[in-house]
Amino acid sequence: MRGCLLWFLVLLALANAGAAAETISDADRSYLVSHLEMTREFVIDATRGLTNEQWLFTPAPKRWSIAQCIDHLASTEEYVLRMVRERLLQAAEPIEPFPSLGRRTASLSQKPERMPAVADALIIRAMTDRTLALALPLEQRPPVEEVAPRNSFPDSRSALEHFRAVRAATLEYARNTRDDLRGHFSFVRLEGFYPQFKFHDGYQWLLRMSAHTERHLAQVHEIKGNHEYPGRNDGR
Predict the structure, then answer these.
(1) Average pLDDT, the chain
(2) 104 confidence band (pLDDT: 50, 70, 90)
(3) Closest among 135, 133, 130, 152 to 221, alpha carbons compared
(4) pLDDT in tens, 7-44
(5) For position 170, what pLDDT does the model report?
């Protein structure tokens, strides 16, 4: 009888431990996966049929090419997925997501709490609005060291292949993870849109990567609209 009781207590403890490790809701998972799939298709459509010259065209000095935009999307998402899984989810306190920045945007005395749904919406709004970024001179907005794009491409289409491989990994994780993405945080501040929220949770970092895709697709379409873009024949 004592052995049965001990076994029951062990099973109860294991069940409670599993319950303590929360995962994202079905609604959160469905929304994230759908958004990631949508923006993946946006990238594929925007780069379909590009020539090598079009991939590598830069509209001005210090401006990115389409290849660099897509490469930046891939390298950023690859970095963020690794950061979330290997650092953020392992940390008891909020982390600095990009150590090269050498700064924190909130005090450790502030305790993060579960983020409200409005914070998710503000992330998408902030990431897809480039107004504030474009208002800064180029020299004041250098790329973050960890996610800067390459300057040369032996095969320009390798940027798209890299993006598709990284997005496949993100989708696989989003569809299947049981990790407590809502319970671990990093410091963050999105100027003008996010002043009341000082943190991102792990789920929001993945959602941010999908919105980040839309942000740079706007840049891709601006490149295509440049009057010197190779192959333009609309007379503008």
Answers:
(1) 83
(2) low
(3) 130
(4) 333 333 333 334 345 789 999 999 999 999 999 999 99
(5) 98
Return the CATH architecture of domain 24-101+116-224.
Up-down Bundle (1.20)
Question: Can you read off the two tokens belonging to residue 54?
Answer: 């079009």
Beta carbons within 10 angstroms of residue 19's beta carbon: 8
Question: Measured on CA atoms in the order 102, 108, 109, 113, is the torsion positive or negative?
Answer: positive
Residue entry with tokens 């009781």: 5
Amino acid letter for position 133:
A
Sequence letter at residue 206: L
Q: What is the DSSP string of 191-216?
A: TTT-TT--EEEHHHHHHHHHHHHHHH
CA distances from 53 to 7, 48, 67, 186, 236 (A): 68, 14, 10, 40, 19
The predicted model scores a pTM of: 0.83
Say how far apart CA 80 and CA 69 lie, in whole Å.
Answer: 16
Domain segments of the chain as ranges: 24-101+116-224
Are 97 and 186 in contact by the 8 Å Cβ rule? The answer is yes
